[in-house]
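Deliverable D4.2, example record:
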Amino acid sequence: MNSAMKPSDILIVDDNPDMILLLGQLLTDAGHQVRAAKDSERALDIARTSPPELFLLDIEMPGMDGFELCTELKKDEPLLQVPVIFVSGHEQQSEKIRAFEVGGVDYICKPIHAGELLSRVNNHVELYRLRKELQVQVEEKTREVEETLTALRVLMTQQQQDSKEAEKTILNNINNLVIPYAERLQKTPLNDNQRTIVEMLIANLKQVSDSLINNHDLLEMKLTPVEIQVANLIREGKQTKEIASLLNLSDLTISTHRKNIRRKLNIKDRKLSLNAYLSSL
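Output generated by the structure prediction step:
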């Protein structure tokens, strides 16, 4: 075994005690840790309780043979990647092909040559460890990327919220401070040039206001709480009398709210249904 390589945990499965002794002695002398099972059922129990780093499987065993055992091992997620080396006295090509088909990574023919056995065992254990290490690194990097993405999503959400709050503040200032002041100014004695400038100022302010309002926030930003209730009921197709009854208000009050809603939402087309407009938001 490579001197830099840590001792590996190997499970030998063979019904022949002499073969277990031989393989175990070779591997132990090379610095490996060895466990053994004389049948496939026992091997499954051992492997599922404490997975090894490599299996050495005999093919011909009573009950479940080596091919069937390998198939069962590959059904277990913790054992799926553990390398399986078949050790057999059969040299037929068909046996070797089947060994690879059921998930084996190598095939060693008896009689056993110590150098060949140890070389193949060391190579497959090292590859197995490299795959596990790579998998751990991938999982760590994936976790880091997921954490970074989560942090970015939180940051973006916060920035969007901050931006939205800033827009609401600007919008409120425009609608509740600047535009009302400009409209009062418009009613004072002005010459034609001054009046034109004030009208342009009001029109531009309203344009800025409208551009800041998202459709989903339109009612909330421009209407009073009662007007929002009325607007939602209009959107549901309710008529003035129905709305008045539901809100315990007079028909006249509801009619006034309807007019205010049209004015605040800048609906100038009298033919445009308020229900249709609100439903489009």
